[in-house]
Design brief:
With 227 residues, the chain is an alpha/beta fold. It folds into two domains: 4-15 and 86-222, Rossmann fold, CATH 3.40.50; 17-84, Putative phosphatase, domain 2 (DNA polymerase, domain 1, Orthogonal Bundle), CATH 1.10.150.240. It is built from ten helices and six strands, in the order E-H-H-H-H-H-E-H-E-H-E-H-E-E-H-H. It has a six-stranded parallel β-sheet with strand order 3-2-1-4-5-6. The two termini are 13 Å apart.
């Protein structure tokens, strides 16, 4: 049975993906790369250093360094969150629901701690999570399962007894690679992407988190985790 739930952050706790997209579309042209929203969707869920590396490998630039570009993107996103970041509707009821089930609750994000801290402090969510962990501590970010495996280990819960709440394809792949159950909540424009079929459940919004979706998870139907 499921003993812990692990939330992603961007697109789950906060509607930050438009902020990320705007930051990438503002910063990358400085090195001669013009990305579209569709381009941003393709790298959604990756760590920012991996996004920068993705574009550098395709269109290398001389200066500034990849690290400088990554830092500038993060700084722009943080400024956007502070200015107009809003929590996703339904986050507090979802957390409260999982608390009634006596589950351990954690946050595992591809974002850097500087952004994670900005978000959870802005929305007063720090006390909601037993563990807050960033993939910046991992050798690889999502879709590699490392961030989820480490979070589960720090919670003291076996990965196959964890439920991940994700919005991106890369995040869903990471959760399933860690052998976790996964509820996917894609943004509207990506909802019909067939790749989300690997998730155990697909919801339209966090407001759907409740008894119906919980009892329909494979682990709660069979008592076993689907591998």
């Amino acid at each position: 049975m499921i003993e812990a739930v692990i939330f992603d952050m961007d697109g789950i706790l906060i509607d930050s993906e438009p902020i990320w997209h705007a930051a990438e579309m503002a910063i990358f042209p400085e090195v001669g790369i013009h990305v579209t929203k569709e381009d941003c969707l393709g790298t959604q869920g990756l760590r920012v250093d991996e996004v920068v590396d993705y574009w550098y490998r395709r269109h290398p630039w001389p200066t500034p360094s990849k690290t400088v570009i990554a830092d500038r993107i993060v700084e722009t996103v943080i400024a956007g969150v502070k200015t107009h970041g809003k929590p996703i509707e339904g986050i507090n009821p979802a957390i409260d629901f999982f608390r009634t089930l006596n589950l351990k609750i954690a946050l595992a994000s591809s974002s850097a701690y500087a952004l994670i801290d900005t978000v959870i402090d802005r929305f007063d969510l720090r006390s909601a999570f037993e563990i807050v962990y960033s993939a910046q501590e991992e050798p690889l970010g999502k879709p590699h399962p490392g961030v989820y495996l480490t979070t589960a280990r720090r919670l003291g819960v076996a990965p196959d007894r964890c439920l991940a709440i994700e919005d991106s394809i890369n995040g869903v792949i990471a959760a399933k690679a860690a052998r976790m159950q996964c509820i996917a909540i894609p943004e509207a424009t990506a909802r019909f992407d067939r790749r989300y079929g690997v998730a155990d459940s697909i919801a339209d919004s966090l407001s759907q988190i409740g008894p119906a979706i919980w009892t329909a998870l494979p682990a709660n139907i069979t008592g076993k985790i689907r591998s």
